[in-house]
Amino acid sequence: MAGTAAARLVTTLAAPLDRAQNTADAPQLLRRPDPEPAPGDGRRAVGRPLLVQRGDAELIAVDPGAPDAAPVRFPAPWPRDFGTFTVAPRGDLAVFAGVHAVRAVDPTGAVRWEVRHGCWDGSCRTLHNAYEEYAADHRHIYADSGSAVFSADGALVWAHIRGPVAASGPDPEALDEWLVIDAADGRVLGRAETETVAAGSDHVPHPDPSRMGLSVGEGQDGVPLRWGRWDGEKLSVEQFCNDERILTGVSPSGDRFVTVTHYGEALGVHRIDDGSVLAELDTEHAVPRHPEADPDDRDADETYWDYECGFLDEETVIAGTAERDEEYGEPRHWLVSTAGAEMRVAAQVTYPFPVSGAPTALGDGTWYTVSGPGDAVHVWSRWTGRIDGPVDGRVDG
């Protein structure tokens, strides 16, 4: 039976936008690479995170490590319900992945570049020129979506879109496409079909700027996982895990990645080169029923991992069972050891005050949680003073 590991509050960051009128999403921290690549292979270590928050009219980015710097505000090209966003590592450019286009915007609101593509509304075959063409159409409010993210060095934008790219002309049979875009001028450098029909997607950056992970959600049909490599001339795509696992994180070295099965019953750690499973951990054997659950509730015996988990360091993953736990009481978070041939729960995390939701790893030994009202993020690290109870292996170093 694993013991407990106390979390130490590193800092609390207030949301830059007021959520009282429901005009903004909860804040989040974007992991940013170190400005300098590691000697030899060009991989980037984890640097200081960026606090970002999306409102209906603007996106705000704040560098918590530069308290005297003013927040950077990017005017939004469309409301927050119409797509996703990302921010460059230097915090000077925002990219909005919308229903009809991927658009790069600077803090003045000027459009740096735009790549138009097929409409994410499944019943629409129009190559739209502007958001205003479908702003009043309720079907587009519930459109599917893609995503975009910067490479570790900020030189590229990887974008998952609904085909085709506007320059190719309409194609009713076009599948989703993966683009590699020059972040400076918007040129599409490489493209490949992902062979998916997405409801949504998330990118998971790799410390090597030439590599990228993509997790695609197809609803009940599956969760395709793709790895892309850009060699400077061609984008090649590999398919891993038989559309059954959600990619959630990459280890700091870039040698391994972690997944959650489609229905949340198991974690897996995989070799980056071929996707092979190195170790798995099923909640049935690792996570007990919630202590506040009714003893007569047999459903409480079934626990599930959250779809947010990631590496704190090369050998430790932080994972939660919060979504399931909140049916019974406080959410629970777990430190999972990935050292050796087996994964195991090393400790349950304890906090100095109640937290909500799943933990999000930042890759440098810290993680964050979002406050219940969504008005702040709390950054945590493992307290090295003590660990209570019996623990299988050290987790306090």
CATH-defined superfamily of the largest domain: YVTN repeat-like/Quinoprotein amine dehydrogenase
Low-confidence stretches: 385-397
- Strand content range: 35-45%
CATH topology type of the largest domain: Methylamine Dehydrogenase, Chain H
CATH domain class name of the largest domain: Mainly Beta
Give the C-alpha Rg.
21 Å
Structural class: mainly beta
Find the count of extended strands (DSSP E, 2+ residues). Answer: 30
Name the overall outline.
globular
Number of domains: 2
Number of helices in the DSSP assignment: 3
Strand order of the largest sheet: 24-25-26-27-1-30-29-28
Mean pLDDT: 92
| C-alpha end-to-end distance | 20 Å
Which architecture of the largest domain does the CATH hierarchy give at level 2?
A: 7 Propeller
Brief digest:
This protein has 397 residues and is mainly beta. It has helices spanning 138-141, 283-286, 322-325; strands at 3-14, 28-30, 33-37, 44-46, 50-54, 58-62, 72-75, 83-87, 94-98, 101-105, 111-116, 147-150, 156-162, 176-182, 188-193, 200-205, 211-217, 225-230, 235-240, 245-250, 256-261, 266-271, 277-282, 309-313, 316-320, 333-337, 344-350, 360-361, 366-370, 376-388.
Task: Give your account of this protein's structure.
- With 397 residues, this protein is mostly beta strands.
- Helices cover 3% and strands 44% of the residues.
- It has helices at residues 138-141, 283-286, 322-325; strands at residues 3-14, 28-30, 33-37, 44-46, 50-54, 58-62, 72-75, 83-87, 94-98, 101-105, 111-116, 147-150, 156-162, 176-182, 188-193, 200-205, 211-217, 225-230, 235-240, 245-250, 256-261, 266-271, 277-282, 309-313, 316-320, 333-337, 344-350, 360-361, 366-370, 376-388.
- It starts with a strand and ends in a 9-residue tail after the last strand.
